[in-house]
Amino acid sequence: MAGVGAGAAVVRVRPGSLPEDEWFSGVPAVRQLQTEGWELAPLTVLVGENGAGKSTIVEAVAEAYGMGPEGGSIGSGYSTRRTESGLAQHLQLERAIGRPRHGFFLRAETMHAFYSFLEDNPGRGYDPDFHRMSHGESFLELVGNRMHRRGFYVLDEPEAALSFTSCLALVSRLARAPEEGSQVLLSTHSPVLAALPGADVWELGEWGMRRCAWEDLDLVRTWRAFLDAPDRTLRALD
What we know:
238 residues, 7-stranded mixed beta sheet, 3-stranded antiparallel beta sheet, 8 helices, globular
């Protein structure tokens, strides 16, 4: 697994472990993990429509790796109300041999509460007052604050808080991860983040998971069509 970095190398669903009565077992991308497994690159990006399984998979990978399922580092004690799918307990992660087991999970929808947790439970390091920052500023500060060690970094739809310019800043930071011996797994609806240089981009849908060139993504084609002719796109909704 040379070059994979300090994280998960291959993600698999344990054979025969998917419970048929759980909703996530019917997600095509999850079923593909069971039949084929999934080798992660140093930079891996997931895209797809709502309900395709992006967040379900990245949350499960983060939790199976030992990160807090609502955000946090390895062994994080942060938890409010469990809403995760339960897929993590059925995953098998093969890690790169001899790499440090460090990582962090940024889950956009739970970050506000996570900031309060950090405020109430200060660690050994220094954390700024994230609540005093704008939403986007806090996301970028958190990434910069946590990605200072070689490790595995998982981000679920971080563009929720970011402007176009801030998305570019995040791309610039993530692109350096492989040079530092780190690995990134990212889910996104942003064509900017999906353009992360050197990343393997996987498109999820009713077909399961497929590697796809950036310019061929449905995400990119629909954004281009809208930006080229927004009036025409909006009229088609009537």
